[in-house]
């Protein structure tokens, strides 16, 4: 075991570039110079744990197998997973007031009461659970609807939390009280209070690890795709390719929601602009 402290392990420019190339090729994330200290600090913990004294030796070790645990752990440490319940609430208001009424009408006319939504880059689950709560609330007095949400992320660490569906009281603070009472169970664990998402909500969601840069085992057509605060880490060509792939999967009239700072301006796409961060096929 190495005796150097995390902050004494130096990340050389050459090593940082090596990690950058690797991460970009594997998952599209662009690591600019500003991320160097973050990458160093996060990976230094792994180096220390493994008893390695240089980043080069760590990269050699982690890349022996890109399906291996250490490579997955490297990607987990690089990804930024910030999220929250009802993040960018205007999207859920738009779902309730515009999108779902239109979907309900269209699907009822077609005799297909089926809704399929994808949360691409779902992080620790707050986004797909918020989608589920929004739909449960909207359809609470309407029967016969088959609603499924696919929730995917590249990080196994966040997916594990997502699948657990257990959140502290401050995490669920943005959830409206009536929905909290109906769909979450309050639990005391040690000195802390937690909220457990009920099976009724969990059963609407299928969680899976998926790298957006690879093949997708997703058939479609989908009614709505949420890909929010994910493309911000990708360069323009990668974003353009991804948005094109979303277009193929979405049904006519379906929607793509992006994050607050992810306008599709400057990339070629076929979506119709509805309002900032909301696009329609
Ligand atoms: C900042 S979080 C956004 C979470 C949520 N969509 C939201 O807006 O609150 C970005 C997520 O994208 C995931 N991600 C980044 N690159 C990815 C890729 N190539 N494939 C799948 N997920 C990716 C990260 O692991 C992370 O959990």
* Structure summary, number of beta strands: 10
Bound molecules: S-adenosylmethionine
Considering DSSP H and I runs of 4 or more, what fraction of the residues is helical?
40-55%
CATH fold-level label of the largest domain: Rossmann fold
Q: Indicate the CATH architecture of the largest domain.
A: 3-Layer(aba) Sandwich
Q: Structural class of the helix and strand makeup?
A: alpha/beta
* Envelope shape: globular
The sequence of SSEs as H and E is: HHHHHEHEHEHEEHEEHEEE
Instruction: Determine Rg (CA atoms, Å).
Output: 21 Å
CATH H level of the largest domain: which superfamily? Vaccinia Virus protein VP39
Total tally of structural domains? 2
Strand content: 15-25%
* Distance linking N and C termini: 55 Å
Poorly predicted regions: none
Q: Report the oligomer.
A: single chain
- Total of DSSP H or I helical runs spanning 4+ residues: 10
């Amino acid at each position: 075991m190495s005796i150097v402290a995390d902050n004494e392990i130096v990340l050389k420019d050459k090593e940082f570039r090596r990690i950058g190339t690797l991460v970009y090729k594997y998952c599209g994330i662009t690591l600019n110079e500003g991320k160097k200290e973050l990458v160093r600090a996060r990976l230094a913990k792994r180096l220390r744990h493994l008893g390695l004294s240089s980043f080069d030796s760590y990269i050699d070790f982690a890349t022996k197998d890109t399906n291996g645990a250490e490579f997955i752990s490297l990607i987990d440490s690089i990804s930024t997973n910030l999220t929250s319940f009802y993040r960018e609430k205007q999207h859920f208001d738009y779902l309730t007031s515009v999108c779902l009424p239109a979907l309900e009408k269209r699907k009822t006319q077609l005799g297909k009461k089926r809704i399929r939504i994808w949360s691409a880059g779902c992080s620790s689950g707050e986004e797909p659970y918020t989608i589920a709560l929004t739909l449960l609330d909207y359809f609470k007095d309407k029967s016969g609807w088959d609603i499924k949400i696919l929730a995917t992320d590249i990080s196994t660490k966040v997916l594990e939390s997502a699948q657990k569906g257990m959140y502290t009281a401050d995490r669920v603070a943005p959830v409206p009280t009536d929905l909290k009472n109906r769909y979450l169970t309050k639990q005391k664990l040690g000195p802390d209070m937690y909220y457990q998402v009920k099976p009724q909500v969990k059963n609407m969601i299928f969680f899976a690890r998926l790298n957006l840069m690879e093949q997708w085992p997703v058939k479609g057509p989908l009614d709505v795709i949420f890909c929010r605060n994910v493309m911000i880490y990708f360069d323009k060509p990668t974003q353009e390719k991804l948005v094109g792939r979303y277009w193929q999967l979405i049904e006519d009239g379906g929607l793509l929601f992006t994050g607050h700072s992810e306008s599709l301006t400057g990339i070629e796409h076929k979506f119709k602009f509805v309002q900032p961060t909301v696009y329609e096929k």
